[in-house]
Amino acid sequence: MIIVANHTLFHSIHQLSRLLKKHADNALKPFGLYSAQWSVIYVLKTKGTLTQTELCEYLSVEAPPMTRNIQRLVKQGYVKKVQGKDKRMKKIELTEKAHQEFPKWEEAITQTNEMFLENFPESSQKQLYELISSWMAEIPSGQENNDE
């Protein structure tokens, strides 16, 4: 019985994730962005300049899809690669264009998020956030086994 309940729990979480992504993609479509690109932009906006490896680790994304997202964002003029202290290391940072456009993207995402939360009590939102945060802190990132 517990196995079925676990499958149901994880299936529900997966379905929720897909639904949230779908709505975020729809909100960002008018700007030519997808939720995966928004994630990169949001992290760079909140954390500042990072290496591609740091972005991969923070977002739990493998290098190939991250490379494609960064290439698209460079082509759109939203991020640029800058030389790190080590000449082999490139850092990724937002461009001025991205900083100017960010409030529009953030508003689109905020409206989408508010739509999902309008009938979800604030106390439940806080409780859910605390549960997810504590659970995520206990889950290994999965990056440890990628060194081959």
UniProtKB/TrEMBL annotation:
SMART domains: HTH_MARR. InterPro entries: ArsR-like_HTH (IPR011991), HTH_MarR-typ (IPR000835), WH-like_DNA-bd_sf (IPR036388), WH_DNA-bd_sf (IPR036390). Keywords: DNA-binding, Transcription, Transcription regulation. This is MarR family transcriptional regulator. Residues 6-137 form the HTH marR-type domain. The keyword Flavoprotein does not apply. GO terms for molecular function: DNA binding; DNA-binding transcription factor activity.
